[in-house]
Structures are given as C-alpha cells and as structure tokens.
Fold this protein.
Amino acid sequence: MRTVRLLLFVVGSAATAYGGWLLFPQLGTALPWLIGGPVLHDVLVAPLVGLVGLALGRLVRNRLRLAWIAAGLMASATLLLIAVPLLWRPRSAPPNPGLPDRDYPLGLAVGLAVLWAAIVVVLVVATTVDRRVTDRRTDRR
Amino acid sequence: MIRRPRVPAPEDFTAPSHSPLVTARLGLWLAVAFGLCFGTGLLSHYIQHPPGWFTWPTRPVNLYRVTQGVHVLSGVAAIPLLLAKLWSVYPRLFVRPPLRQPIRLSAHALERISVLVLVCAAFFELVTGLFNVAQSYPWGFFFPTAHYAVAWLVVGALLLHVAVKLPVARSALSTPLRRRRAVRDAAPGPDDPDSAQRRAFLRTSAGVAGIAVLATAGVTVPWLRRVSPLAWRSASGPQGVPINRTAAAARIAVPPDWRLEILWPGGRDSLSLADLAALPQRTAELPIACVEGWSASAHWTGVPVVELLRRAGAPTGRPVRVSSLETDGLYAASTLPAPHARDPLTLLALRINGEQLSPDHGYPCRLIAPSRPGVLQTKWVARLEVLR
C-alpha cells in the first residue's frame, strides 16, 4: 500500500503542477471562479442545508416521510442548479437557431411537479401498505 | 439555558450521512464520474489538438458522439454527487488544527491545501462546463484552455487526496453498509436506524444523479429528446439540425464566381459548384456531434473528399487542410488527419436531408466526416490543401 500511495502522491503532484502551469496565464480572470465555489458552498449552501435538515427533522417525525421529502428537496435543488445557465443567460454571442430550443421555465416547473407528484404517490402507497401490515399484525394477536 | 453561539466542532454533526462509510462510497462514485469526464475530455482535446502519436478512428461514425455525450453527462451526474460528498465531509471543515505539534500541523496544512485545490477545481469544472453547454460565458477567461488546465488540477489533487485517504477509504469500503442491531434472541434484529439512514442517503444521492442525467440526456440520446426538460439542445433547427454559428455571425458572403480550390504539393485544380454537383454523389447518415455534448444525425449528400482528390490527381492518404470562406475566427480551418481524409464517408456535402445546404449550414459546401467534433466540420469550404 505504501508504494501505491507514494506513486499516487508523485503522479498527483506532477498533474497538479502541470495544471497550474497551464492555467497560469489565465489565473487572474479564473481565480474568482475557482475560489467562488467552495466559499459559496461552505459559508452559504452547507449551513443552509443543515438548517433546513434540522427544521425538517422537527416538523416531520415519520422516518420514511422524512427520507422521501429530503430526497425530493435534493433532487429539486439539483434541477434548479442545472437550470441556472439556461434561465439566466447574459448574451455574449448572437442567438443561434435551435438554441435555446424549448421553454425552460415551463419544463423545469413540469419536471418539479412530476417529481413531487411521484413522491406523494410513493408516500401514500407506502403509508397504506404500512397501515395494512400493522392491522394484520394486530388482528393476529 | 442560553447557549452562546460558537464555531461548531466535528462532533456536533451527528447525522449518519457524515459517516466515513458514506463518504468513501460517494468518493468512489465521484471518482468514477470525474474519471470518465477526464478521460473523454482528454480524448476530445487530443482530437482537436492532436499530438504526433495520437490517432482517432473513423469508425464507428458515432464514436465522438458517444465519448462527448459521456463527457457532459458524467459531468452532470457529478454535480449532485459532489454536493452530497461535500455535505458528508462538511464536519471535517471544523477540525481544529493540531497547533502544538509542528509535524502533524504541517501534514494537516498540506492535506487542507490539497483538498482546497480539489474542491476549487472541481466546482470550477462543473460550473464552467454547465455554462459552456448553454453557450453562456459570464467570465473573462478563454473557456477551452481554462477548462482543460483546471481538469489537470482536478485529477492531480484527486490523486493526492486518494494518496492521503487510501487507508481510511479502504477500511470504510470493506465495512458493509448494512449493520444489524445487536442480536438479542438469536433471530436477526431489525436494521440499525443509523445504518438504514446511511443507505438512504447513498440511495438518494445516486437517484438524484440519475434524475439529473435524465433531465439533460435529451441533448444526445434521441429517445429522450422530448423528455429531458433541461436539454440545452435537441435535434430541431433549420433543415433538421441545430446551428452553432450562423453565416451572419461568421460574416460570410459567397462570391458569385465561387470555386473550390484543391491544392497539393506540385499541383492545383478548381471546381465550380456545378462541377461538384455533376460528380457522382454519395449520401451518408452522419452525426454533427458538438463539443458541447449535443448531437444530431442527418442525411448528407455530397462528393467524398477522397474521390475529389483522386479525380484531381492529388495524392490521397495524407492529411488535408480544409479552409473556410470565413477569414477570422478560431474554426475557420481544420485539418483532416490521414485516416479521415481517405475515408469514403468523409464528404464535401452539398445537401442536407435532401435539400440544398442553407447559408447557415455552410452553403455552397461543407465538410462532414465520421467521428469528429462539430467544430472541426468546416462550413463554407473554399479550399482543400493536401499536406505533406
């Protein structure tokens, strides 16, 4: 394992140095976009996720329901993130035929609606099945 | 009781999603996604800037379409995986540095720096890639070179990170996720709730990555074209194919006496559009596969480049430089490597889907070759030059 780690260390350092050397001429303009991600995430996004998680844990006591609502929120956030460049477009080039080729706000809204409808269906089915199982168990006793 | 607000410590985060068992698995998945992204990205870079040792096959004709589709879709899948991974390790941000022990402190500092480089570079690649596919450039740097350079930073910092974390990751990956509660009366007990939540978090992360891919895969997977709400392109557009650069944007004015020039060491020839149309035509179904990951197939009709050269008496089996009427711009010319230049499916197309090429598609004629990035399929062709 020691050799593997050493090899990874050497190759990794070389690749990082090469990347840094390639990026160097553009470092000035790229730097804000390099630093921006982690700063935004660590200072804003992650604490927000933590707070939402805490609040959700207080509001929803049922474990299954909590898991599915959390999953829905994660999926919605991801879809919203992916949609940002399609919804917010500072034009840097003349528009091209065939781009953008659909109604993105409508598509996003429909996508989110389908997602949450699916989650509601899953929860209703799961709750019904759960109740039946519990009923059967109480009948048997 | 009033608690004074303070900086949290790693122990304050008790959710099962912060377990190393989760982190290691997310790390492995993310490594696969980034690995695919890097491999296919490197291929695309080499196809556009081929080093001497590099060759790229012409078959299957959809090869570049597939590799570049994998490139953008693995990048899309990496977005939720990266966020889940960062959430899993978020408590580690608050580890207090071992200030009193200089050796451990320097190791700690080195690890933090390598992780910082990795996270900066990973965010940079995903964010710039996502904006690039939407052809939106809200920054001052040149996207292709910056994206390529930072890819090496990601891979380098990732390898360093693996070197540091290998023992932890190995033991975490060899520990099964499912753990039963202590067995009380010989029968297996119900799931340990922490273990169930760890698995739920992993399942959700994988599921969200799948949803993200489904929401965008319509750019290149034909049967998802109308399903993906966030596909940045589809197969629609003038004459059935989208356009990246219009004739107006390229400032193209086709002269009335346009002729195709063919040059080779020791000879030259030229043909009018009527001459070209009078030659035996070949129709082929070939994709336009853009570096931005979208792709669309069309039926192209024209004269195979190899036939043109043969008829003119020019040597075949050599690289051919294809120049456009476009005078400036990065993609005004491209070089067909020898395997592509002698491939009978490499066409100088005059027609698309049965119609004459529109000005935006490259009238009077354009290059269309199998398994090549769209930016190298030169439009408004003015000259073919056989290189040595």
